Amino acid sequence: MEVVMKNIYTSCDSENTNAVHVSKLIDFITPYMMEDLSALENLRKLLDPENADICVTSEKFYEAMNEWIQQISSFSTQEDSIFNKTPSVLEVIDEGQLPYIQSTPRASFGQKILNCEGLLNLSNVSAYSLSSSTYGKDNMGQEKTILEEELKRLEHHLNKVSSELVIAKLQLTATEEQNDILQSDLDRCKTRLHSEQQIIEHLQLDKKYSDELRDELNANKKQIEELNKKISQYEKDNHHLLSVIKGTEDENAKLEEKCEELSRREQEAKKEIIDIKTELDLKDQEITMVIKVNDELRSRLGQQRDIIDQLTNENELLQHEKNNLEKALRCDLSSRRESLVHKYKTFLVDSAGSASIGTIPVYTKQSISSNSCNVVEQQPPQPSTVDSPILPLPRKRSLLETA
């Protein structure tokens, strides 16, 4: 029986914390005790006297279960007392039927507990009873008789459990059908509750709207009273205004005559304004033409300035080239002059050495230089061997500087 109690507790203590709520244990055992709920209530009182859904340990659960089994065994039937006399009844409980993984118990095991309350009293079987079963091995005939009786009892118990299983299945089917009916009733009640809640909300909105209308009606009544007072005051003011209107009508007639005169003058003024606008339009057209001609002249002036700037730049470039050519020519002339002077000196030295041979004409320095100048003037200018310095080109004048 300890194995059964241990399996019940471990099935409820899936996290292995050695602390399970009493409600969880009772819910686990309830399907097995549907026909004896008073005994189940006694077990709850043993585990939780104050009904506070406390957590109990495995030791406390085993103690309460043993006490509870003893209470149940005192009301057991004669057939159940026969089962308690032999330890072989332990084989009736199939541990494979216990829910080791699932927390929901099986109906077959529940029917066994419901109808075989004596099975829960297996903890009363002592070691002496177990030893006494082996004590009579000398008398084989008596043991055979006991085994045959045990076999018959087990067959009777198997038939009884099978019939109870069928009954449990029928009860389960009826319970499921009743559950479906109750579920449909619950859905219908929920729908009705929802509709009733909507009706209540609409009624609350109507009540709120009625209160607002009542407040608005009271405010309108007060406003009507105030308006009646104002109407009486306005009637008095109206009589006064009628007298004032008669006076203003006379003044209005005079003012209409003045308005006619002013309208006539206004027509004349409008005619003059139209004439002035026509003249202004003509002047605007003339101004537009003058501006257009002025723009064309400005564009031409800009083009002419660009041409002048271009010619000025070309003139400066030509002037620069002219200066470079003159400088190169002067350098060439100076080099030729030096060459002639050198030749003249060489000629003097040679003439001094050959004075005894014959008479050699003597040239003066001035004659040589004059002859060399004549030769230079007659010959075209040759390119100078001396590199002329590169002068910077003149900067192009911008249109703003030209302006």
TrEMBL record:
Keywords: Coiled coil. Residues 137-328 form a coiled coil. It comes from the Eukaryota. This is Uncharacterized protein.
